[in-house]
Amino acid sequence: MNLRQLTERYSVTSQITVEDVAEAARSGFRAIVCTRPDGEEKNQASAAEIERAAIAAGLTFEAVPFQSGTLPSETDISRMRVVLRGVDGPVLGYCRSGNRAAMLWAFAETGNMAESDILAAGRKIGVDLSPVSGFLQENAAPVADRAPGAAVGEAPGSVVNSAMDSAAGSASGPVSRPASDSAAGSVPGRRFDVVVIGGGAGGLSAAAGLLRRRPNLSVAIIEPSAEHFYQPGFTLVGGGVFTARQTRRAEASLMPRGAEWIRSRVERILPDEGRVVVADGSPLSYSVLVIAAGIVLDWGGIPGLEETLGRNGVTSNYRYDLAPYTWQLVQELSRGSAVFTQPPMPIKCAGAPQKAVYLSCDEWRRRGVLDAISVEFDTCTPALFGVPAFVPPLMNYIRDYGVDLQLGSRLVSVDGARKIATFERKGGNGPERVERGFDMLHVVPPQVAPGFVRESGIADEAGFVAVDPATLRHVTYRNIYALGDVAGTANAKTAAAVRKQAPVVALNVLATLDGKEPVFAYDGYGGCPLTVERGKIVLAEFGYGGRLMPTLPKWILDGTKPTRLAWFLKKDVMPRLYWEMLRGHEFMVKPDRVAA
Prior knowledge:
By secondary structure, this protein is α/β, with parallel strands linked by helices. Among the domains are: 4-145, Protein-Tyrosine Phosphatase, Chain A, CATH 3.90.190; 299-445, 3-Layer(bba) Sandwich (FAD/NAD(P)-binding domain); 526-582, no CATH class. Strand 12 and strand 13 (283-291) form a beta hairpin. Residues 139-188 have low confidence and may be disordered.
């Protein structure tokens, strides 16, 4: 690649190949922007081909094509701003020569850099950016004049939904820029058809599904994080199968086209008033509210845990920055004691705690050191897995790996310096405390509903959003829906459940907006690919009441047995389905109608 650097965070190059993408990742780029339309030259790699390679390399990809000899549109500029502001790291732009990628950058930096600096950057790499001079003079605000705390590229007193940024984006083209906490929702009394709380799997999928069906809806997505994580991949990071960066993308690149990103935190919900209040005190009014705020990992719920996470042999696959440490510990351990824990339900993916056990043991067995390591799995649950049909194959692995399984055992404290974990177990005379020394401790923290849900009068006894388990509508407030981990339903809290819930919520929200009753029902489906060794998985699929709900016929894939096909689905197919799900693509999820 012939790289030309405009700034430390942005470079341009000529047309790249699929092979160049891996080189870009090795060079430290976090995102690739294509400004060239497909088909300009014979044998030109298409944007779709480059996107697939970028996804495989863990990079964000954005296509913002415009014809040579023309200037980018306001929508193109907005989309580029989202990438530049939302990606944490260097960005690479390309076209036939690199000049259009440089031109789009110049327009996008309006208000963020002085005109002279933008033009000088172009001269440095041999690109004449003078055609944008008039636009820059008209629109640029001096950097020194920017209000404290205002979003980069935002003039003092401007609102997030400016004329240029009134449309929002998607994975194939976001066009609304994220607001800072101080600016988001800064117009008092702003109203939307639908307000979505949460930009995770549930929120993005439901919003994208709504806008695919009805593009003219006004939809706001409240999400404070600049990054989105493929959390089902964390276990594979901890098992040395994925790299951490394969599980991370810029949140900006995933915003559905037509949605407005309110980059802030929710402070409280006022359901009787139909309003949500964000961190700066600004209210957002809604016709329908969709809550997809996830679940909170309560690291502080176990005394001593937070202070020792990431050192002293204490780790967790439930955090992006810690999953690589899990793999490091597994590789370093050749003898000693390894302890794995599971807290009380509900938790994200109830199978994930034991997946860490199996992948670690498999690696130790491959290295020939498993017999020198004492492995213990302490789980609060009364059985290894909640659906009996999947317990026998899992117990086979527990026995084969020589794991000491402790049921009804809860981690209550951690002393990292002494490498002591304390558990509470049922004894003959009541609860008793047991200390266990460790060289490696993999902890799954207790998990609770977000505070604003528990305190807003919409929660059930457990603190989660009280919804009808079929329609996912609130049991009291007819214009509130919930999906994902925050919903008070009895299904497994997995991304597979969200895949089935999102179209149900989208369709029922539209019915509510039209003054009708919900028409579709969720059946409780959840999927848990239990990785029992590298190369084999027990694919547990089930619905409400533990009813088995396999997607594929048994003669193709028997989910009650470990198979290589399930491993292929988990490692290669499911990540792709996940990212497409966030765009509103609904594969094999046709919802059932509400029973008459």
